[in-house]
Specification:
InterPro entries: Ac_transferase_dom_sf (IPR001227). The chain is an alpha+beta fold and about 100 residues long. The chain has three helices and four strands, in the order βαβαββα.
C-alpha cells in the first residue's frame, strides 16, 4: 500500500482494520514524510515497490543511452559519422549494460 499524503496518517488505522479482519499486513510505503527530502523519499518508494516485485516503467526516469558514435576521418566521398559496431545498443544490452 502506498500512502499518497503529506504525512503518514493512515498506517495505524489501516493496520488495525487488517488485524481485526485477520489479514496479513501488506507492505506499507509512505510517499511523503515531514522534515525529510521529498526526492529521497520518492526514490525510497520506487525502491520498495521494486523490492516487492511491482513492475515499474523505468524508461521515463532512466532513458536508454544513445548509441556511441565516433568521428572517423572523413573521406571526400563519405562525410558521415560511423557507428562503432562493437558499442551499439545490441552489444550493450547483450552484456547487461542498461541505464536503469
Amino acid at each position: 500500500i502506498v500512502e499518497l499524503s503529506p504525512h503518514i496518517t493512515l498506517r495505524s488505522p489501516l493496520m488495525e482494520c487488517l488485524a481485526a479482519a485477520g489479514a496479513a499486513p501488506p507492505a506499507y510505503i509512505p510517499s511523503l514524510i515531514r522534515k525529510e527530502d521529498g526526492g529521497r523519499t520518492w526514490a525510497a518508494v520506487l525502491a520498495k515497490l521494486f523490492e516487492e516485485g511491482v513492475p515499474l516503467e523505468w524508461s521515463a526516469h532512466f532513458p536508454r543511452p544513445r548509441p556511441l558514435t565516433w568521428a572517423w576521418p572523413t573521406y571526400p566521398f563519405q562525410l558521415t559519422k560511423c557507428l562503432d559496431a562493437g558499442m551499439d545498443d545490441t552489444f550493450l544490452s547483450k552484456r547487461g549494460y542498461f541505464s536503469a
